[in-house]
Amino acid sequence: MDKTCKTVAEAVAGIADGASVMIAGFGGSGAPVELIHALIDAGPRHLTVINNNAGTGQVGLAAMIREGMVDKVICSYPRTRDAVCFNEAYAAGKLELEVVPQGTLAERIRAGGAGIPAFYTPTGVGTELAEGKAVGRFEGKDYVQERWLKADVALIKGEVGDPMGNLTYRMSARNFNPIMAMAATRTIAQVRRMVAPGGIPPEDVITPGIFVDALVEVPDARQEEDLIRAEAVYP
Amino acid sequence: MSTLNEIKLTNAQIAWRAAQDIADGAYVNLGIGFPEMVANHCPKDREVIFHTENGLLNFGPAPEPGQEDWDLINAGKKAITLKPGAAVFDHALSFAMVRGGHLDVAILGAFQVAENGDLANWSTGKGGVPAVGGAMDLVHGAKRVAVVTDHVTKSGAPKLVSRCDMPLTGVGCVTRIYSSLAVVDVVEGRFVLREKLAALSLDELQAVTGAPLHLEGAPEDLVVPALA
C-alpha cells in the first residue's frame, strides 16, 4: 500500500467547488500551510471551512478568505488581533459564520469520525449558543444535544508519516489533527518526514493509516506563526 | 470612587489571593489574559499542574525571547515551556478532561457574575465578531470554577450582580469570586462574603455590589502582599 503523492498540488487535486474542508491547527501550530497554499493555487470556490480560528495575517486560511474561496467558516474563535482578512470579509457580509464552543467543536468532529450522529454536553446550556437545540435531562442536570460534524476533505499536518498513512505529531501541533483526520471523506496529510512502513514504532502511531487517504512529504514545511510574524503574503 | 481606586487590589494581588487556594497536586486551567497571572503566585512548596485546552498538561513559563517554539503554545497562543512529566494530547481528549470532571480548578475572567453563579465573560452583546473559544466548556466540569475580576467596571458599575444582562457563558457555574475588594462565595443562589479589605466598611462594599452580600460569621480581612 502506498498513499503518497509526489507534490502538494497532486495531493489536493479534485477538491470541488462547494466542498466542506476541515483544516487542522490551533493558531499557527499544526496548520498544514503548504497544503492550504496548494489549494489556493487550485482555486475551488464556495467552500465551507472548519477550523478553530479564522486565519491571521495574509497566509494559510486567511489568504483563502482574502481570495474569496470561502462562503462559510465554522470555528470557535475568529476574533484575533490580526485576523484582517476574516474581519474584512465578515464586515462586508461576504462570509457566513457559525461559532461553536471549542470543546463542542472538537467533540462534534470526533463524533463525526466515530459514527455518532449526536451527543449531549453540558457546554452552552442556557446560553444563546444553545438556542433551538434539544435539551435532555440526565441525573438531574440539563445537557444540550449537539450533532456530529463531518467534511468532504480534511487537510492535516503530521510530523512523521509512512506510506500506509500512519502519522505522528509534534508537540501541541497535534491539536485538531487526529480528530479531523477521522471525520472527512478524504483526509490529506502533509508530513515533515516520510519513513518506510515500520519506521514508526506501532506504539508511537497517533493517527492510524486507516484514517488517511493521501500524504505528501514537505520536508521544509513552514510554521504558520513564523510566516505571520515575517508578514508573509500568499500568493 | 477615588478612594476605592486607591485601596483596591492590583491584578497581581488578586491573582496572588486566588493562587493561595490552589491545593498541592491540583490540576488547574487558567483562562487567557489576567487569569494566567495566577501561575506566577502559587506557593513554592506546592506542585500545581496546569492544563491548557489546546492539548498540554504540566506546562511551564514562557521561554526566553528568541527561544520560542511555535509548536509549543498555550490556549492564548503564547509560547510556553514543558516541565518534566508533561503530556500532549488532541483537542477531543483535552476537553474530555475539562467536561469529564478531571480538573480541580478553572479560573476565569468575568464581565459579570450573578448571585446564582451565572457567568458572562465571552460577549458584551453589543455586536462585533462573536468568539467563544473554550470558555463555555471550561465553566462545566472543573470541581471549582473561580473568577478573578475587578469589583466594578471602569465606569464604576457593579460586576457582581443579581442577574447578568450580558450573554451568558454558563448557568450557575461560579463557586468563588476573587475581586479587587473582596472574596465572595456563591452559595445556594446568594453571595456570601468571606473576606474584604479592612479599609472598606461592609456598607461601602455593599454599595458597589449589585446584589446582597450575606454573612456566615464575620468576614475576614483580605490581606495580600505588596505586588505591582
From TrEMBL, chain A:
One of its GO terms (molecular function) is CoA-transferase activity. The keyword Transferase applies. InterPro entries: 3-oxoacid_CoA-transf_A, CoA_trans_fam_I, NagB/RpiA_transferase-like. SMART domains: CoA_trans (SM00882). The keyword Transferase applies. It comes from Rhodalgimonas zhirmunskyi. This is 3-oxoacid CoA-transferase subunit A. It comes from the Bacteria. Keywords: Transferase. Pfam families: CoA_trans. Transmembrane segments: none annotated. The lineage of its organism: Bacteria, Pseudomonadati, Pseudomonadota, Alphaproteobacteria, Rhodobacterales.
UniProtKB/TrEMBL annotation, chain B:
PANTHER family: KETOACID-COENZYME A TRANSFERASE, SUCCINYL-COA:3-KETOACID COENZYME A TRANSFERASE SUBUNIT B-RELATED. Keywords: Transferase. Belongs to the 3-oxoacid CoA-transferase subunit B family. The keyword Zinc does not apply. This is 3-oxoacid CoA-transferase subunit B. GO terms for molecular function: CoA-transferase activity. Signal peptide: none annotated. SMART domains: CoA_trans. It holds the Pfam family CoA_trans. InterPro entries: 3-oxoacid_CoA-transf_B, CoA_trans_fam_I, NagB/RpiA_transferase-like. It comes from Rhodalgimonas zhirmunskyi. The keyword Aminoacyl-tRNA synthetase does not apply.
